[in-house]
Task: inverse folding
């Protein structure tokens, strides 16, 4: 996987930045260890019961059904923590004294334990910003009602969406 990286350097503070990078790399390692910010990475997905129920309701109410996959979903969400990674092979850059530099991640990557919850927070905020309400029993079920009886239902399963509605104008 190619990861684009941008190097930013404070010439007067190279050694201090190197130490900070090593410390942060160590802290990122700690955060991926069991028991330290490891158990707080749960990201909900729609239950099979919710999916079946929405498909049944869509059939009964003759709603249009569609589905969608969000490409590179995890890359859409920002990281809350500072995580440093080694430079990708073939893209290495070195400091003025030949020291190996690292990259500061700005976005969640596939493989990070917190990427799933970061993505869910991002899309949940987006849905709520557009007037959707999530179900109290399944946080991955979103519903929006229009003023003229329109309904739009979205079921989220990681980066896949099932969409049911009676109006394409919503």
Result:
């Amino acid at each position: 996987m190619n990861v684009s990286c941008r190097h930013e350097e404070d010439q007067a503070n190279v050694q201090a930045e190197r130490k900070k990078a090593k410390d942060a790399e160590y802290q990122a390692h700690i955060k991926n260890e069991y028991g330290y910010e490891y158990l707080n990475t749960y990201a909900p997905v729609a239950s099979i019961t919710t999916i079946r129920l929405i498909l049944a309701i869509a059939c009964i109410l003759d709603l249009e059904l569609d589905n969608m996959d969000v490409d590179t979903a995890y890359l859409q969400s920002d990281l809350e923590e500072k995580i440093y990674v080694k430079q990708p092979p073939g893209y290495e850059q070195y400091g003025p004294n030949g020291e190996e530099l690292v990259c500061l991640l700005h976005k969640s990557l596939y493989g990070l334990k917190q990427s799933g919850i970061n993505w869910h927070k991002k899309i949940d905020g987006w849905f709520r910003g557009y007037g959707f309400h999530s179900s109290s029993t399944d946080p991955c079920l979103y519903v929006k009602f229009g003023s003229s009886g329109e309904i739009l239902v979205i079921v989220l399963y990681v980066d896949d969406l099932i969409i049911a509605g009676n109006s394409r104008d919503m």
About this structure: The beta strands are 64-69, 84-86, 102-104, 133-134, 141-145, 151-157, 160-165. Residues 1-34 form one domain. The longest helix spans residues 14-31. The first strand starts at residue 64 and ends at 69.
